[in-house]
């Protein structure tokens, strides 16, 4: 027997904080994950602000090069593993159970255990920064890039690298456990037919399965790296060792991108029709494209390695597989656009974020298609073009989809309303900031300026400054979000049962019933 | 007193508060960037004459734009919408202008344009005048002659007649808000310049941050849809009593006739005050050069050592603090001290400041105190004849100043920075001494106005 999941029940059990350590209500898990994501997102965002500030001038005016290297390393690690990943699981815990008609998770204790692994993992990943700030002897911020390429990562004497690897192992184990919980919940606790399962749940299910395949590979690769660093083995050193790491790493990391992108695609597919006054067009094709992305994304990793000496035939194969991923992605885009066509659009805060996310998806997707093509990839790999491409997808599409999800499901999670004016301001600042920042970096990238270098030729200073201006605008937008959050939790009005007035609409969703 | 209902709503509306905060911050950062611009120019290899030329160009552009824009105030758009749209555009143009400044040294190479760094700085200056002339903070301190005349002063007249308050509450709020924006920006600029290895890096950081905040302000304004009332009534039109600016013929003959129509004492007062304005306008742009290059006043407190360029930010902070103090003290002083005396002493003190800055001991505290006094001029600002105080309580009573004369004063100030730059290039001591001399001449003219008829 299922119970209604209205905002009124959002904070059930929240009054006993100690019970929360073992209590396993899906909403509580959602709040935990989202709170962790928020904290780590702010920390990772601060890294980005610092590195953008360092790039205002072409020379080393503010910090030494090593500090700049540390900023981009910790920014990448934090945002990918400790911000987006917990955030998508948070939204999954918040919405999936009510969407499939249940209030129970399949393995509740495993879910709790998996979450609490993330806290020491986060501390371990950031141990270099913490140690550097507190002056702990030997610990320094890690400066090898989030890809941890050997031999730099193996030979670095910084003990924070070991802590980072342990932290990433914990992330891998915790993520796999979370994926097991969500996959099992969807497959076993579902009280509706597969045909009735919504697109967001399909994306969570696919992302869960992908995580179960990909993260063990990360764990294995890290085990090899740890062995090289601590046991004196040489799995990843000498000869083709560094290439072995790259193959293992990208076999994990490119699917990771889709683990991070698929649930936001689900959020867009879920939220967009509700504020367009229509049902999602081509729902079935949307599900098939989700599954296709889940499979094909495991066959594209080598496009990250086109310049490492991979043979021409292999490069051609991976070029086509990479291009193939664009097909289901385009199918999704078509479903969104056709849904909007002739719809009665309401420009609420979630809808503004979703529409912008779709726009950034187009830009990020098109620039990504070019990177699949070998001659172009060879030219632009390792440049700001790549930075612009994946930030249009991750900051623009994923980030704004998460913003949309946050606003849309906030009443479900807290039972309160957010201030719509502040929400719109947050949305617009983020949109403008992303467009300015990564638009500027796209131009820098088209000029083939190498990324991950603390200095650059003075000619690019205006564009780098423009990108920094955009980053500051994004940061201000997030302050507006924090203000809204604090205000809502402090003095926010209770949310009604149907906070978005969807009751009479054609796409009223199950979670509000 | 019952608060205005709209103010109460605004206080509880976080978006309006953010809008207010970002716009005031933009105001502060724009002003700080302008104050540091001469040092940036110096770092690029340009001398004080170029500095003066650029500042004069900015003032001239602003005066021209102000006259043109006030002529275009008619139209079908609703005043609130028009006002917000113009404010958003002004903020965006300010952002572009600041970015042009930050990137000036290399924009030519990037874009393939033939403008040179100086050309891009000129572009920035011209764009920033949109902020000064039509931006939402044009009434905030430091108000200068760029913003054009205030709206109809009928309400002010009534207010002044009723309680003899020197600064009406809104105007005091404008001083405090503007100064607070500059205080915040000065703290940031000091940090930025201190953290960078060179003034070029520090200036770029200040300008880029100013551009970011301006964009945030534009987005916030666009989201709110209506200007916060603290910046003035959104339906405010640049109404003028009598002749409108489009009718103003700024030719010399017209100005001469307008001046001749003024009563003698009023004319002397206006000329005297205008001379003080010219003197200050001719020195303020060079204060950063004086502090950083000529006198090289650094600061060491404990283990913290600040270079002169960073210390200049603290001096501007002191000036803003002085402005707040002046605004706060204004009503008390005006009610207890003779207004003529207050104005004469104030203008004399203001005129002596350039010399004092050159002659003061090379101590950061002493110079900060002088900057504080420079800011304290807000205490006499509403009494100054060129502002056009038309109340009977004004030191030199009379009708509202004709627009032709207001325009003439604004035009007269335009070449002051250029002349100041030429003199500064000869010797900073010459420039600041001449400024003090011109200012004291102005005070003498004012004295003639005050003594007129006393012998009779």
UniProtKB/TrEMBL annotation, chain A:
One of its GO terms (cellular component) is membrane. GO terms for biological process: aerobic respiration; electron transport coupled proton transport; respiratory electron transport chain. It holds the Pfam family COX1. The chain crosses the membrane at residues 34-55, 75-100, 112-139, 159-183, 204-227, 247-273, 285-306, 318-340, 352-376, 388-410, 422-446, 466-485. Keywords: Membrane, Transmembrane, Transmembrane helix. It comes from the Archaea. Residues 1-513 form the Cytochrome oxidase subunit I profile domain. GO terms for molecular function: cytochrome-c oxidase activity; heme binding. PANTHER family: CYTOCHROME C OXIDASE SUBUNIT 1. This is Cbb3-type cytochrome c oxidase subunit I. It comes from Natrinema salsiterrestre.
TrEMBL record, chain B:
Keywords: Membrane, Transmembrane, Transmembrane helix. The chain crosses the membrane at residues 45-65, 86-104, 110-131, 174-196, 202-227, 274-297, 309-329, 341-374, 422-443. Coiled coil: none annotated. This is Transporter. It comes from Natrinema salsiterrestre. The lineage of its organism: Archaea, Methanobacteriati, Methanobacteriota, Stenosarchaea group, Halobacteria.
